[in-house]
Amino acid sequence: MEDVHFCTSYFDPLSLAHKALHVNLSDVAAMGATPLFVLGGISIPMLHQEYAKEFLHNFADMCENTGIKLIGGDITASRDRIFISVTIIGVARTKAIKYRCTAKPTNIICVVGELGYAHLGLIACEKSLSEFGLYKKPFLRPTAKTKEGIWLAEQDAVTCMMDISDGLLVDLRKLCKASDAKGVIDLELLNPSIAFREDCAILGLDCMDVMLTGGEDYGLLCAIDVEKLHCFAKDFAKIFGYPMKRIGYITNGSGICFVNNGLWKNKKLKPFSHFGESTEF
Amino acid sequence: MEDVHFCTSYFDPLSLAHKALHVNLSDVAAMGATPLFVLGGISIPMLHQEYAKEFLHNFADMCENTGIKLIGGDITASRDRIFISVTIIGVARTKAIKYRCTAKPTNIICVVGELGYAHLGLIACEKSLSEFGLYKKPFLRPTAKTKEGIWLAEQDAVTCMMDISDGLLVDLRKLCKASDAKGVIDLELLNPSIAFREDCAILGLDCMDVMLTGGEDYGLLCAIDVEKLHCFAKDFAKIFGYPMKRIGYITNGSGICFVNNGLWKNKKLKPFSHFGESTEF
C-alpha cells in the first residue's frame, strides 16, 4: 500500500517490483518451498500510470528471470494510491515443510541474514540522506532467502522456521506463541558490527533496539536442535559463504525475555505493529 | 478498491464479502473450473477496523459454506481506503477448459444471466433510492455462474467462453479480438422485459445502452456451434431452469457491429473502461 509500505519518492519502479516479488518469495522460502507461480494484482491511480507501467514491465521481467511463471492477476483503477497484491504458489516435499508451531524447549534460536539493516535503509530514505547506501539496498531491494530456505527445510535439525518481516521481536513472539514456548534472546549474541553501531549512533538510534525491532529484513528465523547445531552451522557457512547467527534459545513458558552477561534484563521496546498497537517487553 | 469498486455507504460487510468472493468465482466459472482454494488480501484503514473485521468474518464463513478452502492471505494497514484482493485456485479437466480465443465464424453468441441489472442496482445505490430492490441484489451480491460454467465447459458445442464483468460490449470485444473475429449483436434479440424498460426510463437511461454497456453482471458469454445450438439450449434450460439468451453471431472481420430489423445500425456508446478511455462503436 503506497504511503504505508512504500513511497514513490524513494522507490523507483524497478526497486518496487523487486520488493513486491521478494517479500512474497520470502514467505515461500520460510516454508522451505520452491516458488513456481505468481499472480499479481495492482490498482493504479490516474496520476501514476507511467510509474505503474514501468513497475509491471519490471515485475514481469523479474519473474521470468527468476524462473517463476506469471500466471495471472488483475489491473484496476484506484483513487489516489497504488496498491499491489502478490500471490506466490510454491511446492515442497510434504515432510520437509517447516512450520512456526514446532519449536521445542532447549532448541537454539538462529537468524539467517542481517538484522536492522532494512530499518536503517528506511530511515535514510525517509530523511533523504545520500549516505547509508549499505542499508538502502536491503530496504529497497531485499533478497528472499530462497536457496537457504530450501536447504534448511531439508535439515532435520531445523525444528521450526518462519521469515522475519515485522522485526525479530515481533516474529519470534509469533513463533513462540504458535509453539507454546518462551524465547530467550541473549543480547550479547546480537553482537552488532562497529560500523552498524556507529551508523545507528549517527542516526540517533539505539543499535540493539534497531536489531530487535527493525522490520523488513526478510531473513529467516529458525529453531534448531541443540545437539545437531554444531556441524549443521558449519555446513551452512560452507554452502552459503556466511554464518547463521545464534541469538538465543527456546524454553518452557510464554513470551520473550532477555539475558545480558548471564543476567535477566528488562527492555522497554516499541516493536512494529501493522495497526500501531504499542507493546512492551 | 474502496470508492472505485464499492462504497461502504451502501455495501454492508456481508454484501462486500459476498461480492469479493463471487466476482472471483466468476472468473473461475468462465473457464469451466471447480473452485478449490482461496487467498484473501486486505488493507484496512484505522477508521474501518470494525467494518473490516465483520467483512473478514463473513468472507471466511462464506468460503466454508461454499466448500472452498481459505488457505492464506495477508492483512495490512492502509492509509484511508479499504483494498481487497482475492485469488481463487480451481481445477478443470484439461480438455474441458474454455478460452476466449477460440470463437469461430458462424458461431452463435449467447449470454447466461441478466444484462444490465447490476448497473441499475449501482445507480439505485448511488442515488440512495429505496426502490429497485430487484436490481440491487445482483449489484451488491452477484452470484457466480459456477454450476453453469462447469456444465458448459463439458459441452463440445461451446467453442469459447468468458465472464461478463465490464459489460457485454467490452467483454465481447475482448473475446472477438482474442479470437481474431467480428461480433454481430442483433439488437432485437436483446429483448428487454417491459419492467426493465420502464425502470430504465424512470432512471433516465436508455435500456439498450444499459444492457450493452452496464458492468458487473458476472454472467457468462459463450460462442456456440450453430448446428448444435438447438438441443443444447433446450438441455441448458431444462437443467438450470432458465434459458440462455442468444444475442448475435460471430463472423469474419474484427470489432463489434449491430443489426436491427435486418439492417446494419451505428450506435454511439461509452462503455466502461477501468481508466476512463472513451471508445465509440
Overall description:
2 copies of one chain form a homodimer. With 281 residues, chain A is an alpha+beta fold. Chain A folds into 2 domains: 13-30 and 34-91, 60s Ribosomal Protein L30, Chain: A (2-Layer Sandwich); 96-265, PurM-like C-terminal domain (Phosphoribosyl-aminoimidazole Synthetase, Chain A, domain 2), CATH 3.90.650.10. Chain A is built from 10 helices and 10 strands. Chain A has helices spanning 13-30, 49-66, 117-126, 133-140, 146-153, 168-179, 187-190, 194-202, 207-213, 229-240; strands at residues 34-44, 69-77, 83-91, 108-112, 158-164, 182-186, 219-224, 245-251, 255-260, 263-265. In chain A, the strands form 2 sheets. A 7-stranded mixed beta sheet of chain A has the order 5-7-4-8-6-9-10, with helices on both faces. In chain A, helix 2 (49-66) links the parallel strand 1 (34-44) and strand 2. At the A-B interface, strand 1, strand 2 and strand 3 of A face strand 1, strand 2 and strand 3 of B.
